[in-house]
Write a structure and sequence with these properties.
The complex is a heterodimer of chains A (163) and B (115). With 163 residues, chain A is an alpha+beta fold. Chain A has six helices and six strands. A three-stranded antiparallel β-sheet of chain A has the order 1-3-6. In chain A, strands 2-5-4 form a three-stranded antiparallel β-sheet. In chain A, helix 3 runs antiparallel to helix 4. The longest helix of chain A is centred in the middle third of the chain and has 19 residues. Chain A is globular and about 45 Å long. In chain B, helix 1 packs across helix 5. The chains are: A alpha+beta (163), B mainly alpha (115). Chains A and B meet through helix 1, helix 3 and helix 4 of A and helix 2, helix 3, helix 5 and helix 6 of B.
Amino acid sequence: MAKPQVVYSASTLLSYRICEFYYNGIHYVWCAPNNNADKIIRDNPASSDPLEIYWLYRKAVKTGDEHSFQINSNRRGIARGAIAREEQGVIDRKTRERIVAIANSAPVQEFDPLLYVIPYYLVQDIIREVDLDQAARVTSLEFVIENLPRKFFDVLQLHGDLS
Amino acid sequence: MNIDDLLDHYPSDAVLEAVYLAGRLFSRPITLEELIRQLSPNVNDEARAKALEIIGQIILEAEQKLGRPLSQLSVEEKLPYVEELDRARSELARRSEVDDNETEESMRELRGISL
């Protein structure tokens, strides 16, 4: 099967900063090809489409939506990431608790979205294709990179409105 | 699910893992088995096993209340269960020894990180 040239991941400024500051610039990302840019690759549902996710973050930040599912999803991911990094010995218990507290109380504005642009050839040895069921495989392609060094991706901030 | 009971009976790593996994499971058209297959194997097995136990209880509660299996529930029907678990995450942060001043100081440090 053809591999994508590039995969994208939607993240947030807070998540980025935590990875840079506490995890030595190592990032954990779910990523996928861009629906509209790569005609060879299958389309992903909105829940795993980086650009869709990006704009959901953007809308939540712009409107100051304290109850945004997308932002809460990032809060969950940051908290869980802190546990994983503690288990790996990257941070200690106290730092983990600090990160969980930050994830919980950071204001919505800290979740400004970022789009990571990741050339596939740079990560082909560390990227893992997500195991989807047979039905989902027809339309979806999603990957995870558990230890992505900063030097392997560019960061974009897109501006504008969804509507 | 009673949040206080949950926090009394399960370690914080298991609760935070459950909150994360429930968020993914209940916001996507995937089954619990598919979610498990997607997860990295190199994690704390004990915490994950307990997290899956929590999620199993939530699924059971949702299915009994709504009268249909998880696979037939819409995302809108499932999300309140994730939001309930989010309360557990907030409560865990509240119970930690990290005070507000320390959190704010850490936030200031983080804001100094550029792209």
